[in-house]
């Protein structure tokens, strides 16, 4: 009987973790595909924002869009984004529907990312590694 307790505990813990992961993924926005790139965009509302932040570790490229404000930064949405590879070819062109844009199935390499908010364009050069993740925060001054 004592030998069963650790096994029962392990199974219960695994079920609880699986349920928590299912809850998080249920709050994620729908995945989109452009060429070979898959991405999700969103993070509006606490549940979706929490789910997007948890999902970041599974995406090689994570972008975040914020307005710098006095009290605290504010999340932004409706941000046009273009990702170009080292040859200048557009890999992804979309409008982020929330403060997070998570990109997968993007090849390792160097990229230029542009994002626009209120007529102001921010550019970042980055490298996406074969393993690990790259996270970039785009910040604009609050109006």
Question: Can you count the beta strands?
Answer: 10
Shape, per Cα inertia axes: globular
Number of domains: 1
H/E series: HEEHEEEEEEEE
Radius of gyration: 18 Å
What is the mean predicted local confidence, pLDDT? 85
Question: How many angstroms does the end-to-end distance come to?
Answer: 65 Å
Q: What is the tally of helical segments?
A: 2
Report the CATH topology name: Immunoglobulin-like
What structural class results from the helix and strand content?
alpha+beta
CATH class type? Mainly Beta
**What is the CATH architecture annotation?**
Sandwich
Question: Would you identify the CATH H-level superfamily?
Answer: Immunoglobulins
Q: What percent strand?
A: 35-45%
Largest sheet: 6 strands, mixed
> Which stretches are low in confidence, meaning pLDDT under 50 for 5 or more residues running?
6-10, 12-23
- Helix percentage range: 10-25%
Overview of the structural elements:
By secondary structure, the protein is of the alpha+beta class. It has a single domain (4-141), classed as Immunoglobulins (Immunoglobulin-like), CATH 2.60.40.10. Helices cover 23% and strands 45% of the residues. The protein contains 2 helices and 10 strands; from the N terminus they run αββαββββββββ. It has helices spanning 4-26, 46-55; strands at residues 32-34, 37-42, 61-68, 74-75, 79-85, 90-96, 100-104, 109-117, 120-128, 134-141. The strands form 2 sheets. Strands 1, 2, 3, 4, 7 and 10 form a 6-stranded mixed sheet that branches. A hairpin with a 4-residue loop joins β5 (79-85) and β6. The chain is globular. The N and C termini lie far apart (65 Å). 23% of the residues are buried. Mean pLDDT is 85; it is low at 6-10 and 12-23.
């Amino acid at each position: 009987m004592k030998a069963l307790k650790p096994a029962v505990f392990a199974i219960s813990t695994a079920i609880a973790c699986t349920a928590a992961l299912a809850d998080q993924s249920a709050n994620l926005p729908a995945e989109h595909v452009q060429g070979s790139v898959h991405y999700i965009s969103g993070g509006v509302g606490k549940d979706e924002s929490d789910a997007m932040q948890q999902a970041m570790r599974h995406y090689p490229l994570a972008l975040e869009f914020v307005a710098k404000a006095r009290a605290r930064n504010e999340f932004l949405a409706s941000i046009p984004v273009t990702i170009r590879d080292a040859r200048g070819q557009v890999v992804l062109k979309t409008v982020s529907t929330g403060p997070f844009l998570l990109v997968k199935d993007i090849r390792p390499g160097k990229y230029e990312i542009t994002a626009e908010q209120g007529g102001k364009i921010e550019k970042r050069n980055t490298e996406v590694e074969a393993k690990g993740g790259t996270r970039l925060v785009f910040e604009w001054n609050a109006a």
